[in-house]
Structures are given as C-alpha cells and as structure tokens.
Amino acid sequence: MRNYYYYSWFYPASIADIASKAFRPFTDYAISGLNIAQNNMDAYIDMSKTYSGLVEDNINETTQIAQHTPNMFGAIPKASITANGIGNAVSDVEDGEYDLFVLKKLRADLTEILHIALSSA
Amino acid sequence: MPDDFKPYSIDDYDKFTMEDYSVILKAFTDENNKRLQIMRYLAKEAKDEQSAKERVEIANRIGVSVVDTLEHCNALRNIGAIRQIRSERRGDRGPKERIKYYLAVEDVIEILALLNAAMLGLDKNAAKRIKQAITKIFNRSRHKIRYGIYSSILRCRNRSLTLLQTSHTVTHRHKKILSNGGPR
User: Fold this and answer.
1) What pLDDT tens digit does each residue of chain B (184 aa) get?
2) Chain A residue numbers touching B134 (CB-CB < 8 A)
3) pTM exceeds 0.80 for this model
4) A77 and A91 assigned to the same domain
5) How many domains does chain A have?
6) Does A20 share its domain with A74?
7) ipTM
8) Which positions in chain B touch A15 (Cβ < 8 Å)?
9) In terms of residue numbers, what domain contains A63?
10) Between chain A and chain B, how many beta carbons pairs sit less than 8 Å apart?
C-alpha cells in the first residue's frame, strides 16, 4: 500500500488550485497585487517545506520500523520532491550557488521591470 | 526584421530540466547587475520595435563598453527576455544595417510565470494559469493607470483581507494536524 500524500489539500492538484486562487483575486485591479500574490506563494512554499519535513520524518520513521519487512513497504518516494519545487534542486545542481533567495530576488526584479514597462506606457 | 527567438515557452514546460532554470538564472546574473539595468532601461524606453534602442545608446546609458553591451544583450536575447531587430541605416554613412533591441514584455511575463510555477513544483496547466493571471494583472493595471488607481487600492485592501483570512484557515489546519501528532 502506498500513500504518497496524506491530505488531499496538499496533493499537487490542490496546490495548483491554491496557486491559481492566490493569483486570481489580484487579476482585476492593481500591479502591486502581483507582489502580494507572489509573497503569498512564498508562504505556501515555506508551509510546504514544513509539511514535507514532517512527511519525510514520518517516512523515515516508518522505514526504520519496517526495515525487517521491506516487501511490505518497498521503495517509498519522498513527497518533498514536488513540494520543494526547484529551489533546493537548483542549489543541488549548482552546488549551493543558487538558493531560493536568489530565485525570489530574480522574480522580484522581473516584476519590477514589468511594472516599469507598464508605468511608462 | 523582428527576431522572434523564444527558447523558454510554457508549452515546453514539461521538458524543462533543472539546468534550464539554471541557464535562466545565469542569463540575468552578472557581476554588476548590468543586465537587469539594461532591462530596466528598455522597459522604460523600448518596449516595441518602433522604440528599439541601438547598442551604442544602451552602452552610453548603462555605462559599459559596446563590447560588454553586446555580451549582455546576447545573454538576455538567448533566453528571450529582449528581442533584436535589424533596421536600415539612415544616411550614407555607417554600417548598412543597425541592430536594435527592445524588451519582450510578453516573454518576460512567461519567464515570470515559469519561475513561479517551477518554484512551487506545479504542473504545466498551473503554469499556464499563472501566466494568464499575471497577464491579466498587467493588462488591468494598464487600464487602471489610465483611469486612476484609488478605487483599485480600496479593492486591493478588501481582497488582501480575504486572502489573509484564507491563509489563516490554512494555518489553523496545520496547527490541527500538528496537535493530532503530525501526518499519518
């Protein structure tokens, strides 16, 4: 039996819904809303990380308990792959050169550039 | 003649690897943030073919050599953040054609959506929805700049409150899970 995600609202499809819902309220008024939506997304990333950590701990614990009965559990995937997104993965690829802060800063810079483009229209 | 080179499209989102995101990050990153300065300059003064700027103009404005400007512009063009056009010379002197650059606003929106979706590990459809939402934000903002932003600020406040309420509900559910001994 494999339960990759324990709560339906943290299944990727639900995260996708949350993400789109977080952006949607800001779509019909002001430019600063984008920053608010993105900051809200950052909060979701942090929450996801916390949740992933809990799941990972739980999986590790379960794996330890079940180490004598591997056939029952098989290979249990890490839920954090989806929840962590590219932040950690990019750090891994670049050996620590990039982290989530760099991604967030780039995103903020691009938002500012788009803001300039519109305000000078 | 416009250059529609667009290497990072949401249509190919599923094919992107971590290295692709690394390439995007590197393209925007240089020692003195000159590339972002170039983008800010083009955002202000060159958002379409008609207002595209020549390399010399960009170099003078940013305060780097023309050779360095070429390197920066090529890096930005390779990820689709700016576009290059060629126009015929004016007068009899100088090269036969001039290369100009302008900001590819739609493609920057696409890159922004890609980063947002990838940071959350979302799927292609979510990436598309985020792009649509961001595009709508900017289109509406353009409208609001024309007609005033005061009513928008009021609506922003109301919607922020709704969002905070939603966040509070999620936090409450987290607390409940933790108090029940974590995920099972």
Assistant:
1) 455 667 888 888 888 887 888 888 889 988 889 999 999 999 999 988 889 999 999 999 999 999 999 999 999 999 999 999 987 766 666 667 788 999 998 899 899 888 888 877 778 888 888 888 878 777 765 655 444 444 454 455 555 555 555 556 666 666 666 666 655 5
2) 23, 34
3) no
4) no
5) 2
6) yes
7) 0.72
8) 120-122, 126
9) 11-25+47-84
10) 185
